[in-house]
């Protein structure tokens, strides 16, 4: 039986959680309204994907591009999941900041522009907790002292 690798969570990327929290406290632009410039969002997107939302908007798309970034959020969430990304919060609701990160993330995932952040592969048995390292270290030390 093969298991799917865990999804990469956008909210776990550096800075995204803070921006999501701030977005909950202020209203998002309505449909058809342009987003106000936000230096924090631009800096976060640039650090993560090497593209700001404005740079992503200006990036030329390949001829076979499907305009996924303009599809309804529910369809994008499903498409992101299929591409290996979880773009929801802890309650499985789409992130409010997804409207800002959608284009840079799609361009990076598909290799058109920018890049996705590096994420190391998990070591060892994925079913084990990362808190087990302390007990593993203690057991190894005990075995060493017996030698």
Report the structural category: mainly alpha
Low-confidence stretches: none
What is the radius of gyration? 19 Å
Distance between the termini: 40 Å
Q: Report the sheet with the most strands, covering strand number, pairing sense and barrel closure.
A: 2 strands, parallel
| Element pattern in H and E | EHHHHEHH
Number of strands: 2
Provide mean pLDDT, rounded.
80
Q: Total helix count?
A: 6
Give the strand content: under 5%
Q: Could you say how many structural domains there are in total?
A: 1
Structural shape: elongated
Q: What percent of the residues sit in helical stretches (DSSP H or I)?
A: 40-55%
Q: How do the strands line up in the largest sheet?
A: 1-2
